[in-house]
Amino acid sequence: MKTSTTLSKISFFASGIVLIFVFYLIVSLVKDNQLIYPSWNSIFISLGELLTSKEIYLSLGMTLLRVIIVLGISLVISLLISFIYLLKKDIFLIFKPLLLLLKATPLAIVSVYLWISLGADKAPYLITLLMVLPVMIEGFIAALDEIDTIYLLTLKTENVSFIKKYFIIYLPLIMPYILMTCLQTFGLGIKVMIMGEYICQSNNSLGNIVYLYKQNLDFAHLFALLIEVVILVFIVEIAVKIVKKKLNYQIKIN
Fold it and tell me: Looking at the domain assignment, is residue 37 inside a domain?
């Protein structure tokens, strides 16, 4: 039964991919404009060229490195704020207006301002940080709120400093949630980073390559690059689902 359900899900997923291909094929035939709507053949040829291009791998590596750096900074800040939240929840309210502001501010406005004020190399880091940080902080806070009341009552009786409790007890309890949140924000970080690099035209970046493709009206390579990024984010999404399954399994056991 489980095998048939899995096969059914795979078939529906494959059907969705086929529909995307067919839809684009119909649009390209109706519009009949190979410049803006390149054929699948030219897109896959461009994809092959990208897969053998050193420049693409260098740019991809630099973009991913930027995302990892931003996630590392976000992780440290989120852990610090979650520590403050556990110490005294009322203090966390100080950060609430800032988090709401970051979530509501349009990405384009922030990107342009930071590009002008910080420059093309530094701005994408901060642009991505401002978008990723609220998501990570809220994920950590939600994880702390999910801790069973029995654990909290037991912790109150322990004669151990709060710092030790945080690192030895609290963090291990929410570690699966932390991992899942980091993976989720990684996918978001890639998309935001590319947008920031595109607006700022940062050197050695996927965003800058997208900008050059747009300037040259090279939509075949643009779509090919889109496919590469989608596959990368899709792999991350699969990792998130695996972590979720393990997390749900642990919750059922506990």
Answer: no
